[in-house]
Design brief:
The structure holds 2 protein chains of 2 kinds.
Chain A: H1 10-26, H2 37-50, H3 52-85, H4 87-102, H5 105-116, H6 120-144, H7 148-156, H8 161-198, H9 204-213, H10 217-245
Helix pairs in contact in A: 2-10, 3-6, 3-8, 4-6, 5-6, 6-8, 8-9, 8-10, 9-10
Chain B: H1 2-31, H2 42-55, H3 57-90, H4 92-106, H5 110-121, H6 125-149, H7 153-161, H8 167-203, H9 209-218, H10 222-250, H11 257-262, H12 274-305, H13 318-332
Classes of the chains: A mainly alpha, B mainly alpha.
Chain lengths: 269, 344
């Protein structure tokens, strides 16, 4: 799957949007269940003018970003240090980490609520938890899979340990790390909406649940569209930064966003 | 001799992390480092687990969840694999054109779709199966497309030169050649199924392991909550490991760079004959039938009993949702304004 979207890729997109607009109008699909695109756009505009959209989007972004940043701050050093310097510690920790990474976050959320209550803490924690493992595993694998030839060459040139890490290991691990970061950011949004649906009084997920409870179908679509757009933009920004900081060797495009994908790292063993 | 000793130490080392974690879980509540009411010791959870297993509740919930998961996955495979072959091989231009749209759709947050599916299909089984199928469709579809595109062109050309074409080419070259990659997609899809299944059961169901955990939390049956959670976590872990092992065993003719690097011997290949494949298929079918029967029984019981927690009949009315919310808050003593007063 090529990077540059060919022009013909725009045709189905436009067609899809046109059908979305036309089908409810012609009555082939019940407009109560599928409001036309214009109604959804109108709804988004209305939410924006009322200031609701900005407020809720900001709250949601704060939560997602809080959890994500916490995961990066904890997971990156964890993965780098454990993967780089303590192979025995890594052997001891890896099964446990794998178990934690497999932990269903929705289930865990209930347990975390017991300890932290239903407030911001629990939401940030669960988002951070989910984001932590792809970051840690990708950092670990990135360090482990650094080209041994490069390391040996650098060693033979008399490089110091720290210098070796900064100028050889880290750059070669960077693409994988960024892939992990993007995966994490995706998770952050998935979990954000779940957490907001299960217990919140603000945020985009709450907006959608609220719309569902009051049968405001156009608003459900509006919320879903805004969340998708937000997630896509964050992913785009991360991709941009990644491409700029860590110009990537060819990676597998089309990595589907998935909870289980982080365990794919294990395949390298 | 030292080699086996090394292997044993390695094993022990790998187990030590989990062992220490379990030990901490057991002792911390007993010594009083954490509140045993919120975090019951491991053995208490095991006992709750034993009780659930003994009553047969757990088996029933597991069957219901398994049926839902299998149905969703079956739908996703039935749509995703043929569609992947069509888009990746038969009509590559259409595939390229559709790709941006499909990518966009795959990025839609599954949780925001849940209300929509509930709206379209009602709160019954269809909505859950649909959302599970939707979530697992994308990895299966994308991996299948990648699979058929990356089948060794030499093989295809050779087959062509030997006069193999049409359906025969798909059956003998493209499908077997793409199978490892397709299997990866199915494995990732299965992981997503498991994740989404639990969430869907929490947001509206009257049975299933997700509901079990949710209901235990709502009724403050903490050991049972942990028991259900542990069951789900263990199942998810086992499922992933099992599929991974299967994948490595079945498709080990594929590149295995790690073995060359680590020097570890390759795993013995799993080579199931026709009998093995048939056995697995029959077991899956059996699970599907029994699970479907159990789901039907549970749903019927909920309708006739009329005391279900999350009704299966009819869409949720605002009153009932309000009432449920009130009840939940009462039960748990949650502060609805703990959000920092941002509520409106």
């Amino acid at each position: 799957m090529k990077q540059g979207i060919p022009i013909i890729g725009a045709i189905p997109l436009v067609l899809f949007l046109a059908l979305w607009e036309l089908l409810p109008h012609t009555g082939i699909v019940d407009p109560v269940f599928l409001p036309p695109l214009s109604a959804v756009v109108e709804n988004i505009a209305g939410l924006w003018q009322g200031g609701d959209l900005q407020t809720h989007a900001l709250v949601s972004l704060q939560r997602a970003l809080g959890g994500f940043l916490a995961a990066v701050v904890l997971g990156l050093p964890l993965g780098l240090v454990v993967g780089g310097w303590f192979p025995r510690l890594q052997a001891a920790l890896e099964p446990l980490m794998e178990l934690f990474a497999q932990t269903n976050p929705v289930v865990l959320f209930h347990i975390i609520i017991l300890f932290l209550g239903i407030g911001e803490g629990a939401k940030t924690f669960i988002i951070g938890w989910l984001c932590l493992w792809p970051v840690a595993f990708s950092a670990m694998n990135g360090v482990r899979n650094a080209d041994p030839l490069l390391i040996k060459a650098a060693r033979s040139l008399g490089i110091g340990r720290l210098k070796l890490f900064v100028s050889v290991v880290l750059p070669s691990a960077a693409p994988l790390i960024f892939a992990g970061l993007r995966l994490s950011a995706g998770y952050a949004f998935i979990m954000l909406v779940a957490a907001e649906m299960m217990g919140a009084s603000s945020g985009l997920g709450w907006l959608v649940i609220q719309a569902q409870e009051s049968y405001h179908v156009a608003r459900i679509f509006a919320g879903a569209a805004v969340i998708t757009g937000l997630a896509l933009s964050v992913d785009g920004v991360l991709k941009l930064i990644g491409g700029w900081l860590a110009p990537v060797r060819e990676t597998k495009e089309n990595q589907p966003l998935g909870i289980a994908a982080c365990n794919d790292n294990r395949r390298d063993r | 001799m030292t080699k086996t000793l090394d292997a044993i130490t390695d094993r022990l080392l790998r187990l030590s992390g989990v062992a220490i974690f379990l030990l901490l879980w057991e002792t911390a509540p007993r010594v009083g480092w954490i509140d045993p009411y919120f975090a019951p010791p491991f053995t208490t959870v095991l006992r709750a687990f034993g009780r659930l297993a003994e009553e047969g509740t757990l088996a029933s919930h597991l069957l219901v969840s398994a049926w839902r998961g299998l149905s969703g996955l079956a739908v996703a495979v039935a749509i995703g694999v043929p569609a992947g072959f069509l888009l990746g091989r038969r009509f590559p231009r259409v595939g390229a054109a559709l790709e941006p749209l499909l990518q966009l759709l795959s990025q839609v947050n599954p949780f925001t779709l849940l209300p929509l599916f509930l709206l379209f299909f009602g709160i019954g089984e269809t909505a859950k199966v649909a959302v599970i199928g939707w979530v697992s469709l994308w990895p299966i579809l994308f991996y299948t497309v990648t699979a058929v595109r990356t089948v060794d062109p030499l093989l295809v050309k050779t087959a062509r030169a030997l006069g193999v074409g049409g359906v025969e080419l798909y059956r003998t070259v493209l499908f077997p050649g793409g199978l490892p990659t397709i299997f990866t997609g199915v494995r990732i899809g299965t992981g997503l199924v498991f994740f989404m299944l639990v969430a869907a059961e929490m947001l509206g169901a009257n049975a299933g392991v997700g509901w079990l955990v949710h209901n235990s939390a709502m009724n403050f049956q903490i050991p049972q909550l942990y028991a259900g959670a542990a069951a789900i976590i263990f199942l998810g872990y086992a499922l992933n490991r099992g599929l991974l092992t299967l994948e490595q065993g079945l498709f080990d003719w594929r590149e295995a760079p790690s073995e060359a690097v680590s020097g570890r011997p390759a795993r013995p290949a799993l080579r199931p004959g026709k009998g093995g494949v048939v056995l697995v298929a029959v077991l899956l079918a059996l699970l599907f039938v029994v699970g479907g029967w159990e789901t039907r029984r549970v749903n019927l019981a909920a309708v006739s009993g009329g005391h279900s927690h999350h009704g299966t009949h009819g869409p949720p009315t605002p009153e009932r949702v309000e009432e449920e919310k009130r009840l939940e808050q009462e039960l748990n003593g949650w502060d609805p304004f703990a959000d920092g007063g941002k509520s409106k």
